[in-house]
Amino acid sequence: MKNSLPPATEQTPDLVPRKKAAGSSRRFQRKASQADAGNEIWLLTLTDMFMLLMICFVLLFGMSLYRQKEAAVAAAPPVAAMMPVPAAQEPPVIQSASSLESELLAILAGDRQDVTVERRSTYIILTFPERIMFDSGQAEVKATVQPLLEKVAVVILNRPELVVAIHGHTDDRPIHNQRYPSNWELSVDRATQVARALVQTGIQPTKLSIKGFGEDHPLYPNDSDDNRMKNRRVEIQFFLTPSNT
């Protein structure tokens, strides 16, 4: 009887390790699945980030194109400016400018004193050099030029449609006196004194505008005494537009 029973101790030790091995396998599978899930979450986050970057790039590119389009539209001339002037409007302005130019040249024919007349489209520029109007560094109009200014005033009075601007200009040499801290003040005062001389002949002050540019708008480079002398000037500009001809 003793020899017919298998030993109890031969199979018992094998049961415990098998259970441990099965439990360890299940824990490993759970950890592996958790790691895979973490990797998937990381991949999804990276994909979302690239998608957002792509969207931002597209938006920025679209905004850049839109701004370029707006800049091009703003830089383009107005449609009205590109349209040709109707034939019914252009001739009166040109004819009036031509007539004004001829009249100014006529009053200068006797004694021009180096005063020049220049026609630019629909306005005329009458340029007085400094030496015939002012002493150096001064703004008082010389008495010798008063008769010529009176003739100019007659032209203005006979043409109520004119818009008149008086501009003072200097060279680039700094001024050195107590009355004028800079060339700009001198140019403004010279334009003002010429306007005052015209007003004294009967022209309404509201018909005149005054500007001083100092050395900022030279006719020639300020690289010689002769060029500087030409840059020191006063301009009387006569404007003609279709609305007032």
Outline: elongated
Number of domains: 2
Please, what is the average pLDDT? 78
Summed up, the helix count is 7
CATH architecture of the largest domain: 2-Layer Sandwich
At the fourth CATH level, what is the homologous superfamily of the largest domain? Answer: OmpA-like domain
Q: What percent of residues are in strands? A: 5-15%
Task: Quickly give the structural class.
Answer: alpha+beta
State the end-to-end distance.
Answer: 145 Å
The largest pleated sheet is described as: 5 strands, mixed
- Report the strand count: 5
In order across it, which strands form the biggest sheet? 1-2-5-3-4
Sequence stretches where pLDDT stays below 50 over 5 or more residues: 8-16, 74-89
CATH fold type of the largest domain:
60s Ribosomal Protein L30, Chain: A
Order of helices and strands: HHHEEHHEHEHE
Instruction: Specify the CATH class of the largest domain.
Output: Alpha Beta
Give the helix level as a range of percent. 40-55%
- Output the radius of gyration: 45 Å
Description:
- The chain is an alpha+beta fold and 245 residues long.
- The protein folds into 2 domains: 1-83; 90-244, 60s Ribosomal Protein L30, Chain: A (2-Layer Sandwich), CATH 3.30.1330.60.
- The protein has helices spanning 12-75, 79-82, 90-108, 130-133, 146-158, 183-199, 225-231; strands at 116-120, 123-129, 163-169, 208-212, 233-239.
- It has a 5-stranded mixed β-sheet with strand order 1-2-5-3-4.
- Helix 6 (183-199) links the parallel strand 3 and strand 4.
- The longest helix has 64 residues, at 12-75.
- It is elongated and about 90 Å long.
- The N and C termini lie far apart (145 Å).
- Mean pLDDT is 78; it is low at 8-16 and 74-89.
